[in-house]
């Protein structure tokens, strides 16, 4: 391991004073750093403070727009916010924090450069720590899940899923095998929270529209299945609106299975707990999240769910100079009865960053800290084009008014005027012109044609193709080639696969 105790001196400029290390570039990381660079403008200019942001990606993804990006209503590049442009007074380190030793005030970080150099991770020292690594998909030991399913938390997954759905329609249109055709036109979504319902609704809308351009595929041939372990979907919008959402989806021939679990998806066969078996080439897993693995590699206090124990001031309980918010933090909800915690969702995360930045600034300047308090006032959800549900300030909306509220709210929340203008322009154009139904799956393998010209073997098309040979950070979105033996059946799946929070869920509220 390379020691980098004086990491702050590796870049030109005046020597720094207090270093604030922000781990994570999502909602909490970006907004906290943005507000800190505004509040500490004078200190940053004089070199008295330095803000370092460690993040695996050079952008923040506005996750509520992922379903529309997957459906083609918004360009993928407009649902991400470049961190270097937003945080021009901060130092951005593209890498992954592997461990944090707060007792020694240092974080172990693997950067792109350390991977190329083969020298091992570096250690970045700090004075104040902000932990905001977010969450990852919460999976279960279901046979075949790791081999054949795809998540829906990143823009790469959203675009990969869009390409995959269109390519499955291409396969169904050209195959002579009825079994392959049925499997290609069967799409299984697991999880009835915001991520699963909105992704399914938008992609079903897109696929149904695209079917008109296939001579041998009708909308009725498409089979979408929503699998939810509990007895309701979209619990955040209330029971009445949740039931309306089920009726709306079922009216579009979407098969909604409540109190049902996915038991297996080995060999491209989805086996449900109610005994249903169906061949499918598409399994989308959106059944909850869990804290990032980094938290287990710290010396900070964690609760039984693996989240950092925090105070209402967003400090880490019993620890000095450490702060946390968002999905990774268990923050007391001072507006509810004692013992309740704020839900780990984006609605709380974005609001917590304001208090977090104020308290860090006050701490550096010797001022008093304030508590985070926010009363949940409602949520909105899209069910496809011109369809939605909302429960705001006790008022229930459905259909077009709810869908319009959904768009207006998220347009107001997406960062930067630049992104707002681009998204609004794309919505306007999509209302004037027809949908784009082109699959660009070949973008995932940009060297395929050159490799073929150089004597290599042409990969297949879509997510079933063989992996490319260029550098990549992890497995490509989609599905691996050919059937693989899944893991041996593990413990019986949790009867409630969705976790207590969804990072995409609360962001629909106000």
UniProtKB/TrEMBL annotation:
UniProtKB keywords: FAD, Flavoprotein, NAD, Oxidoreductase
InterPro entries the record matches: FAD/NAD-bd_sf (IPR036188), FAD/NAD-binding_dom (IPR023753), NDH-2 (IPR045024)
Residue span(s) of domain FAD/NAD(P)-binding: 19-351
Enzyme category, top tier: oxidoreductase
Keyword Metal-binding: no
Disordered: annotated segments: 453-510
E.C. code: 1.6.5.-
Biased composition range(s): Pro residues: 477-490
Family: Belongs to the NADH dehydrogenase family.
Protein known as: NAD(P)/FAD-dependent oxidoreductase
Organism of this sequence: Streptomyces maoxianensis
């Amino acid at each position: 391991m390379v020691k980098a105790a004086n990491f702050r001196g590796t870049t030109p400029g005046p020597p720094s004073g207090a270093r604030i290390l922000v781990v994570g570039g999502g909602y909490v990381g970006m907004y906290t750093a943005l507000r800190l660079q505004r509040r500490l403008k004078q200190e940053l200019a004089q070199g008295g403070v330095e803000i370092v942001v460690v993040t695996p990606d050079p952008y923040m993804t506005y996750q509520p727009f992922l379903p529309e990006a997957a459906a083609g209503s918004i360009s993928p590049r407009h649902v991400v916010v470049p961190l270097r442009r937003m945080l021009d007074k901060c130092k951005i380190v593209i890498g992954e924090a592997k461990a944090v030793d707060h007792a020694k005030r240092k974080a172990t970080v693997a950067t792109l450069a350390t991977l190329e150099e083969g020298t091992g991770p570096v250690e970045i020292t700090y004075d104040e720590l902000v932990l905001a690594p977010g969450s990852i998909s919460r999976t279960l030991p279901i046979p075949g899940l790791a081999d054949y399913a795809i998540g829906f938390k990143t823009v790469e997954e959203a675009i990969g899923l869009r390409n995959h759905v269109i390519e499955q329609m291409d396969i169904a249109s050209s195959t002579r095998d009825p079994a392959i055709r049925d499997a290609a036109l069967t799409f299984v979504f697991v999880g009835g929270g915001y991520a699963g319902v909105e992704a399914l609704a938008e992609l079903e809308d897109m696929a149904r529209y695209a079917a008109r351009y296939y001579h041998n595929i009708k909308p009725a041939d498409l089979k979408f299945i929503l699998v939810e372990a509990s007895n309701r979907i979209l619990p955040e919008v209330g029971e009445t609106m949740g039931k309306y959402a089920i009726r709306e989806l079922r009216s579009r021939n979407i098969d909604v299975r409540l109190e049902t679990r996915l038991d297996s998806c080995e060999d491209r066969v989805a086996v449900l707990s109610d005994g249903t078996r169906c061949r499918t080439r598409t399994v989308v897993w959106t059944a909850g999240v869990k804290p990032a693995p980094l938290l287990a590699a710290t010396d900070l206090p964690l609760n039984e769910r693996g989240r950092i124990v925090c105070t209402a001031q967003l400090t880490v309980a019993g620890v000095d100079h450490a702060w946390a918010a968002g999905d990774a933090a268990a923050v007391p909800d001072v507006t509810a009865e004692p013992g309740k915690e704020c839900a780990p969702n984006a609605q709380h995360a974005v609001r917590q960053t304001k208090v977090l930045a104020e308290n860090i600034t006050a701490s550096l300047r010797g001022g008093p800290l304030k508590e985070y308090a926010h009363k949940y006032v409602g949520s909105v959800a899209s069910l496809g084009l011109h369809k939605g549900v909302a429960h705001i300030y006790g008022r229930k909306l459905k259909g077009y008014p709810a869908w319009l509220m959904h768009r207006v709210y998220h347009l107001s929340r997406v960062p930067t005027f630049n992104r707002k203008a681009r998204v609004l322009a794309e919505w306007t154009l999509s209302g004037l012109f027809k949908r784009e139904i082109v699959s660009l799956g070949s973008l995932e393998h940009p060297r395929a044609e050159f490799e073929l010209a150089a004597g290599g073997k042409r990969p297949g098309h879509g997510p079933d193709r063989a992996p490319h040979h260029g550098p990549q950070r992890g497995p490509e979105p989609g599905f691996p080639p050919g059937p693989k033996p899944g893991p041996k059946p593990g413990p019986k799946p949790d009867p409630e696969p969705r976790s207590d929070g969804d990072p995409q869920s609360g962001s629909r509220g106000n």
